[in-house]
């Protein structure tokens, strides 16, 4: 196994472990790639291996999702849930397409910005974990449509690498009255169209720069990300229900601070 394959496997592990916890998987991937000297064509590796994490969510929630689709023609609650997820996804579609080139060419190429956002996001997470209002939404599948739309706009903050898609949606949902568990679970559901859309659009935009060696690295990262994400998702809901999000806030601050120091000394 050559060095690039080992790095791809390590980055896949980082992706799977961090995608669904509020620490910014993209921020971790970009910083790890920077310090390891890993460079993917068009930064496509970092986006495409997220599909492994999407499939992990699909595999875990397959029964529930199939039930929702089966009941949608006759069940208003099922239709409302589908609409809520799609409405929450819509802002990311518009802003993501319009700002794609700026995000990939500027923001993804600024390690210091990523490190700073990790630290700031950690502080926000610690504060929100303490001051979030008492929850009045305990079921992620029954959030009001207007609440889902607000979470969708908040999710767009995560287009700044280091903010964290799951972190933004979880913090937004909690401040809008969702319980810690419901906030995490809605973040899982919203990740499916968001990450799948990012994968498809990024693959299309970078179709001319991918080669056989890049696809090999992506395949390795994909498989490792899928396996790690399955384990994380099964553990996360129980953990946050009991303990909240403080652990992840401190993790962000430590990793971000270490990255700032490393970049400053480089």
Summarize the structure.
The chain is mostly helical and 266 residues long. The chain contains twelve helices and no strands. Helices cover 77% and strands 0% of the residues.
Account of the 3D structure:
The protein is an all-alpha fold and 266 residues long. The chain has one domain. It is 77% helix and 0% strand. It is built from 12 helices and no strands. The model has no long low-confidence stretch (mean pLDDT 88).
Task: State the shape.
Answer: globular
First-last Cα distance: 29 Å
In angstroms, what is the radius of gyration? 18 Å
Q: What is the number of domains?
A: 1
Helix/strand/pairing category: mainly alpha
Helix content: over 70%
Question: What is the mean pLDDT?
Answer: 88
Number of helices: 12
Task: Give the low-pLDDT segments.
Answer: none
Order of helices and strands: HHHHHHHHHHHH
- Using DSSP, what is the number of strands? 0
């Amino acid at each position: 196994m050559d060095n690039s394959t080992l790095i791809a496997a390590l980055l896949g592990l980082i992706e799977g472990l961090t995608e669904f916890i509020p620490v910014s998987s993209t921020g971790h991937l970009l910083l790890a790639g920077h310090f390891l000297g890993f460079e993917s064509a068009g930064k496509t590796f970092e986006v495409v291996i997220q599909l492994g994490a999407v499939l992990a969510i699909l595999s875990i929630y397959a029964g529930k999702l199939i039930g929702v689709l089966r009941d949608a023609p006759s069940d208003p609650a099922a239709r409302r849930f589908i609409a809520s997820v799609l409405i929450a996804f819509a802002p990311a579609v518009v802003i993501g397409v319009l700002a794609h080139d700026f995000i990939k060419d500027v923001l993804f190429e600024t390690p210091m910005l990523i490190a700073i956002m990790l630290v700031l996001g950690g502080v926000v997470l610690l504060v929100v974990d303490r001051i979030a209002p008492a929850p009045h939404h305990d079921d992620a599948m029954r959030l009001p449509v207007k609440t889902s739309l607000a979470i969708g706009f908040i999710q767009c903050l995560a287009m700044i690498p280091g903010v964290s898609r799951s972190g933004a949606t979880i913090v937004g949902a909690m401040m809008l009255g969702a319980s810690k568990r419901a906030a995490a679970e809605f973040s899982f559901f919203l990740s499916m169209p968001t990450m799948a859309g990012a994968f498809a659009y990024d693959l299309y935009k970078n179709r001319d720069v991918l080669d056989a060696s890049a696809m090999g690295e992506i395949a390795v990262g994909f498989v490792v990300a899928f396996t790690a994400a399955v384990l994380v998702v099964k553990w996360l809901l129980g953990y946050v229900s009991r303990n909240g999000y403080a652990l992840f806030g401190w993790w962000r601050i430590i990793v971000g601070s270490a990255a700032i120091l490393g970049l400053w000394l480089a």
